[in-house]
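Section 5.1 Outputs to date
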Amino acid sequence: MNPGTTDTTDEASEKLSEKLAAIARSLPDQKLTVHELLERVGQSGMLMFAVFLTLPFLVPVSVPGVSTVFGLLIILIGIGFALDRLPWLPSFVMARSVPAGKLAAALEQGSKLVARIERFLHPRLDFFVHGPGAGRFNGLVLAFAGLLLMAPFGFVPFSNTIPGLAILFLALGMLEHDGMFVIGGYLLTLATCVYFGALVLGAYHAGSLVLGG
C-alpha cells in the first residue's frame, strides 16, 4: 500500500492550507504527544503529515526540541515511500511530547505560507511523480532531507528553514502530482548540502587559524 494513498485527496488538494490552520488552532495549550498530533492530522495520508511536520521550520518562531523528532519522522515516511509501504513509526517517537502552544503558533503561520504556495500547484511533469522508480527516488530524497533537518546546526540561520522547504516542496509535489515542485525539492536539498558544506568548511578554516595562531 502506498503510504500517500488517501480517500480525501481531492479535499486535501482544495483546502490544504485551511486544514493545516484548523489543526493548528485545535491544539491544546500545553504539551501533546506525536501520536496525538498524528491523530489530529487524521487519515489524509503520510504526505499530508510530512507537510504538517515542516511548518514549524518555515517561520521565525522557535519551537525547541522538535527538529530531531520531526526529522526522524520524515526520514521514516521517506523510507516508507521508497519501500512502497506504510512507514513504521516507533513507539518511543510516538510517545514523545512536544510543546503544543509554541507549535500551534508556528503551524498557523506556516499554513499561511502554504496558502500562498498552493496556488501554483497543479499536475505536471508526470515523469518525476509517477511510477515505482520515481516513488523510490523521491522517498529516498525525502528521507535524506529529513536527515539534513536533524543536523546539529540549529543555532545557524536558515539551517532548518532550507531543508524544511525542501521537504515541503517534495511532499507537496508528490501529494499534488506536481513534478515542478518535486524538482524544486531536489534543488533545495542540494542547496542545503552546499550550505552545510560551507558551514563545515568555514568552521574548519576558523579552527585552523585559531590553532595556527
